[in-house]
Amino acid sequence: MRATKSGISWRLSLLFILFLGSSSQNFGGQTQFICTSVPKDMDICAATVQNSVPGEDLKTTVMQLRETVLQQKETIMNQKETIRELTSKLARCESQSGTDAGGRRKEFGSKNTMGDVSRGPADTLAQLSQTLQSLKQRLENLEQYSRSNSTVQANSLKDLLQSKIDDLEKQVLSRVNSIEEGKPGLRNETEQRGRVESTLTSLHHRITDLEKGQRESRPLDKFQLTFPLRTNYMYAKVKKSLPEMYALTVCMWLKSNASPGVGTPFSYAVPGQANELVLIEWGNNPMEILINDKVAKLPFLINDGKWHHICVTWTTRDGVWEAFQDGVMRGSGENLAPYHPIKPHGLLILGQEQDMLGGGFDATQAFVGDLANFHIWDRKLSIGEIYNLATCSSKAQVGNVFSWLETSLDIYGGASKWTFEACRQLN
After folding, report:
1. How far does the chain reach from its first CA to its final CA, in angstroms?
2. Is residue 234 a contact partner of residue 286, using CB atoms and an 8 Å limit?
3. Peptide bond between residue 265 and the one before it cis (omega within 30 degrees of 0)
4. Segment (H or E) for 224
5. In this structure, are 151 and 69 located in the same domain?
6. String of DSSP letters for 48-102
7. Mean pLDDT of the chain
8. Shared-domain flag, residues 284 and 305
9. pLDDT band at 283; cut points 50, 70, 90
10. What pLDDT score does 296 carry?
11. Considering the entire predicted model, what is its pTM?
């Protein structure tokens, strides 16, 4: 058999016709195998239909095959477009999640402060709510346990729970601050932060209530205050004001590893003068004593995470001052607010620096660490008296203006109170 025109392969025509016949069999039609030659310019499918006996069936089969191929092509194109769109969205998500609100690059897939992969504010706050509920339940169990078991075992559980709550508070505040920095205009998140802080304060108060059962056996001066993180709401307030003073000595035990600067162990403000008497170390500045807003730099190095005893003496005559660390004089000077008496009718705050009487707290200047045995005298103590205080001598005295007692303070914002004995720290 030969092709009727040059350049036409009868083998190709035969194979194509056989293929069409086989395909029609798959659709349930009857099959005939036809061998024929096809002119060069003639449509092969048209020729096949014309020469086939069951022409209409074969034509239908060919059209169905064509339609199926076209549909598959269209499906493939749509899938490719979908893949491109999803790839583009994924790239945008990676770009957005890799940069924080301030433009600083974050590691994609990194964990947030709560230990989970970064999620939205609503999810995070919901998780915090669940965690706090769990803590409440554990605290209730602790209270029941302390009533039915020994004091030592109850204290051990209480200490563990307090540590967990302190860690949670740091994580909560860090996460909420991060949320508010990213979306400062969302009032709902600010309200939820307030509720979280209120719940944490309530938990601290309930733990303090657990300590009340121990106070009969513990002296009122054997305690420390702990400020676990920088905030503008965590502080202790001395219940009474200071008298007018022409000389003074301030002593305390401090422990901190905060950097840069331990913050403000105490501040005393009076009407018209927020910086009447302040001890502060913030930023990269050395520790300073302020009297009537006048400044003297102190040679203290205490942010090593260890307990240190510090004292500062001052007299209004010539403004002479002396600074002692761990019972040893480290520095002295003069002309610090000379001939200015410390004014009465003010407010003494532990843990915060006051920009106004009783307020204006700045978290960057807040004290971070532990404070204990805070005493004030209205005279200049001698070197020997200060040494006795630092070495826990039996001759050590207590402040005649302010003496360190639990009943002399009101505590706010979650600052915690723990048993403390200075002499044990020295052994």
Report:
1. 115
2. no
3. no
4. strand 223-227
5. no
6. HHHH-TTHHHHHHHHHHHHHHHHHHHHHHHHHHHHHHHHHHHHHHHHHHHTB-TT
7. 75
8. yes
9. confident
10. 97
11. 0.55
